Amino acid sequence: MKTIIFGAGSDLGVHIDGAHLGPIQLMNDLQSFYKGESMQFAQDDNIIKSRNLSDRRKNEYDVEKINTNIYKSMLEKTKEDYFPILIGGDCSVCIPSALACAKQNTDIGIIWINSHANYNTFSSTVTGNLHGLALASINGYNQEMTVYHDGKLIQTSKTVIVGARNIDPGEKEVLKYSGVTVFTTEDIQEKGVEAVMEEAFKIAGYKVKGIHISYSLDILDPDVSTGFSVPEFDGISEDEAMKINDLIIKHMKEVLSYDLVEFNPLRDINRKTEQIALNLLAQIIRAAENKGRFQKTIY
Question: In this structure, is residue 15 part of a structural domain?
Answer without folding.
Answer: yes
